[in-house]
Structures are given as C-alpha cells and as structure tokens.
UniProtKB/TrEMBL annotation:
Family: Belongs to the methyltransferase superfamily.
Gene: LOC105033534
UniProt enzyme class: transferase
Membrane topology category: Single-pass type II membrane protein
GO molecular function: methyltransferase activity
Protein name, entry field: Methyltransferase
Origin species: Elaeis guineensis var. tenera
Amino acid sequence: MKNKDPKPGAYPDKSSGIVPMTLMFIVLCGSSFYLGGIFCSEKVIFFKKDETPMIQSRKETVVAPLQIKSLAFPECSSNYQDYTPCTDPKRWRKYGNYRLSFMERHCPPMTERNECLVPPPDGYKPPIRWPKSRDECWYRNVPYDWINNQKSNQHWLRKEGEKFYFPGGGTMFPNGVGAYVDLMQKLIPGMKDGTVRTAIDTGCGVASWGGDLLDRGILTVSLAPRDNHEAQVQFALERGIPAILGIISTQHLPFPSNSFDMAHCSRCLIPWTEFGGIYLLEIHRILRPGGFWVLSGPPINYENRWRGWNTTVQEQKADFDKLKKFLASMCFKLYSKKDDIAVWQKSPDNSCYNQLTPASYPPKCDDSMDPDSAWYVPLRSCIATPNQNFKKLGLQSTPKWPNRLHIAPERVSMLPSGNSGGFKHDDSKWKLRVKHYKTLLPALGSDKIRNVMDMNTLYGGFAAALISSPVWVMNVVSSYGVNSLGVVYDRGLIGTYHDWCEAFSTYPRTYDLLHLDDLFTAESHRCEMKYVLLEMDRILRPNGYVIVHENNYFIDAITTIAKGMRWNCQKHDTEYNVEKEKLLICQKKLWYAKLSQQ
C-alpha cells in the first residue's frame, strides 16, 4: 500500500527533539546500569557468601573466586544411617495408597532439609572388592535381618558369621540364576552375540539376575522400590551391581523412550493386567523397537504352577489370556516360551502401529506427549510410537556391542548443534581427560573403585573412556538440561534423569566415585551448592572419591564446604592446564557416629 502525502506540519522541526532524546538516552543508560546490577547480584543468590569484588582490566573483566565462610556439619543421629530423603518411609502416611504412589519420589521441602552428615552403621567396614563382592558382603554394612529371615528358603542370601552370601537363587530360579539365564539365552539368541546390551529388571530382589548378566556382556539397571524387603537396592549396590530406587506407579520411570534392549520381571508382583494395562504401556515406552520383554512367574506356566500361587487354574488362565490380549494391542508378539519363561518382542517397526484406528485401545499418543519426558511426568493410557524419522533406532538396526559404543547414534541429531563430528570430538576429549585423571588418582581403574556416577553427562563420554576398567557408571542427565540420555543408551551404556536440587534415588554409601563436570556452572542458579555437596556425601562410600572439574570461580567454595564434611581435597590443573578451569580431587573420610548421638 502506497504512503499518503503528508499533511502540512506533519514533520516537526528537528531541533525541537534534541532535548527529549538526550533525556531519554540518559534514562535508558541509568536503567541498564541498575538492572545489570540486579542481575549480577542475583546470579549467585543461592550462595551465602562474602561480597565478591570485581577486578577491572582493560582487556577483560575477571570475577574473583567465590568465597564462603568455613563451616562444619554435625552428624545426623544413628537412625539416619539408611536415610533416603525422597523415598522416606516416615513420610509415606502423607501420601495416598492409590497404585502404591506413596512409594514414588516425594522430596521434603526446603524447610525440612537436613544439614548433617549421615553416619555409617556401627561396625561398618570398607566394602569387599569386585568381583568377590558379587557373592558376599559385610553384614554390618547392610545390617538387615528381615530379608535374610524371609528369603533364605529361596536362596536369595544367607548370613554366616560376619557376612551375607549370595548363592544366586530366586523365587523363579531355584536351580540358580545361571541355569535360569542359560534357558533365557536359548529363547533369545541375541543375548549371546552383542545384540542385547542394556536391560532393566523390575522388582529386582538382590539383583542376582543383573549380576549374572554382567559376565555375559549385558548391563542391567536393577529397579526396586524402598519397601518392606529392607534395602533390596542397597544390597545390589553393596555387591557392585547397578541399581536404583524406583517403582512403576503413576509416573514415568526416569528413562527416555526406546532405550532398553530388554526388560525383565521375575515374579515381581507388578499387576500387569490391571488399570487398563498402563504398566505394560510404560514397559513399551522404554523398550527399544524390536526389544524383548521377559516374564516369569504368574501367570506363566500356570498349568503346572497354580497350586503354589494361592489361586485357581481358571483365574490364572483368565489372567494369562488377558495379558496376551493387552500385549497384542500394544504391538507385542509372543517371541518364545518354555517352562517358566515367556518372551514377547516389541514391534521392530511402525507397520503394526499404522494399522491402529481411533477406536483402538489403547490409542496412539497424540503430539502433546513427549515420550522422552520422564521427570515427574504422569503415566498415560496410550501407546508411545517410535519416531519414524529414525531408521536405526530398532534393536536389529543398532550396531552390536561393543561396536555401538563409539558410533554416533542417530539421536545425536536431535540435540542442539548435535552431529557425528561433535560426538567423535567428545569421545576423544574424554579419552584424554580420563588418562589425565588416572595420573592424579591411581585408584581409578583399579579394584578400589567399582560403583561410579557421572553426575552430569552429555553423551556418556566419561563412562565410555572407562569401559575397560572394572567399573560400571550411572550416567546422570539433568532433567533441566539437554536431553541426551537416549544417546547414552544407544551407545550401550545406562543412566537416569535427575535434578540435583533434590536427593538421588539411592541409599547412603552406595558409590565409590562421583564425577562432575561443570555441574555448578550449569546449575548454581537453581541449586544451592551446600545441599548438592551434602547429597554427594550421603551417597558416597567412606574412603570414596570425588572428581570435580569446574570453573575456577567455584573451586575454593567447594573446598571449604568439603572440609566441613570431613573430605580431604587437592587442587590440580586440567589436562590442558586451562587457567579458568581446575580439578579438585577429594576423598571422604571414614568416621563413626559418636556414642552420645546413638
């Protein structure tokens, strides 16, 4: 549209606008200076610190390192020795019983957070080293008699003298877990040739299944809630087997979609056919296309087992028929079945899902659901279908282990600036960095360190660089950061989402090494450093290690807090001797609760 001719007087005299424009410029400059001061003062509002002076330079502005006053944390009382803040049985009464949702994560508010050091049990000893720890552990480290009294007849474990022994038994494998897995391998040949690499065991007991699979090249996340079995997950971790607290209830498990190659339930007591099959839908979500779901226990082999299940053959047959119907509606196919074990396979492609109609139940999820969103996200009664843009997401298209570890997965392209070149650069960076770590911490790579956590990984590079060491690594991806956990699983590694403003889903004293790379640089605007470090102390074993790779701005403050937690720390240069970055290597001291506090 053409402009109309201006009317007389439409353009004022230019000199008349000089004074207002000058005043406006002064006001804007003053406002910018004021707002900039507010932003800078609030950027580290979570840290109670002394004033940080700004050192002016003609070349650049340098921020002096963060400084805080020295402090010493008291000991928690001895009844906190197995304290799990976000799955605390003392708080269960506050939450409903619907689908056992009280066992899900319910973290205490800030006003109820403890600022004390969790003591070890009386008589605690340094854990037995791997691989001997798979078969035995010190009784005083996990002093729970209930599980021994209730499960000894099933050969879960037995107590002899000062130790617990794990004979490898279980409810559904009375002949030992080895014979049980041998049969499973006959039913799933991919377990032998590197096709199946990652697995999840729901209702894991003391994780004997996951422990056996380690020798077969399969890495398992053993999952169990904090329940009356008293520390199933703690037993697993004490043995050196990957495990995490969790339950399929009302929310997604903290894993991305299409991640695990195999899921397993051995009489795990999950009511698969109730609530419209919603728990099966969650297994479907986290299984990779073409992945396997293995079930043993009711109602499998009901014809021969029903008498021992306090039920009738008719009830078990009806349950089995219902289970098969639900699985078929989700595009699972019965892959193989023998004796007490049945195996279903998730559809390897989208051909089955494309045949579903709007009247189908369960329906396909709509676009409003992100299948990878899994941190406090409610379960939904719909099928999360794989992204059709990915052609190599399926189990048969994924490179076999160990080749998949160093091949850039398709899902890298989903990430900001993600590409195969960046992936390879990250892989090379971590090989060099871990080599440098080992010169500063000789215990890394030895049998002194078994359970490792990378607290804020991107692609799992730290874990990949340690693949030849006798360790396993829990890769943690921030629930507020770049969602790269799918890439970690595509590489054949394991991990979980987490928010470090909250407590982690594990028991005290469960990790030998905690590693963090610029965690406070990324999260200091949300999470208070003191509480993150106290949580690290809770989950770190006595005599365990911490490697901190951080901006130099935070190093002194971390050192001060660490000293108040009875850690011994040393500062080192990074592998490239970068002035703005430093390494801090710390070791937690072994101490015992004072008699006055017991």
